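Deliverable D5.2: sample structural annotation.
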Amino acid sequence: MRNAEFTVSDAQGRKVVRGEADPFGSFMASVPVGEYRLAVSADGYTPFRGSAVATEGEHTALGDVLLQVAQPPTLPEPGEWEIEPAHSTVAFTARHIGMARVHGRFTTFAGAIRVADRMDESAMHVVIDAASIDTNVKMRDDHLRSADFLDVGRYPTLEFYSDRFVHRGGTRWGVTGALSLHGVTRTVTLDTEYLGTGNGMEGESRAACRATTELHRDDFTITWQTMLARGIAVVGPSIKIDLDIQIVPKS
């Protein structure tokens, strides 16, 4: 199985080696003498866990490692669902020019999801309040809301609409749609991991997923070179988006 991921940890649980199997499904690691634990995983399969003892000058062979096909998580029931903001996060990470990464989030958002009988025919619409951006620094947040960046006076919301859900195997989905930001609309694909369904404290049904994507500010006409020329230290050109979402049936 090509590209299966493996992790080798020592007896204290510290990760020593991480990597992927080669195109033939094999892997090899050189480690100091000692006892080790091995974890092998691949999307759509139940992880394998084993152990091995490395001795001086010897090759410790694990033989064939077999991964069992995992039962896919139950999909949400067809119908109208909505994002539950209290248990969801819309976060981002960006590089601050010449400095460390900037972490932030949007605190106000809403979303509706229509789950079809066939999941790949489902649709979703999410609206984010641009002014709710929060990086835990008021001066920076005020600047991000200004005309230099989000220009919330002219463009008060970010919107994402998708009706293309593509199963990539196992728990992975690609959700492709149109993102409208700063007056510009671009096609964006969310790399999504579906986490399954469950029940809340009051017995209500809910489903959860995690998703990531990367945006380039130039694509949305938020140019950063001009601000650099003016000597303003700004957030870098690429922004990673991290979504942690729970949905509940629409009331």
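Annotation notes: Residues 138-145 form the longest helix (8 residues). Residues 55 and 196 are 42 Å apart (CA to CA).
The annotation will be released with the project's public dataset once the embargo ends.
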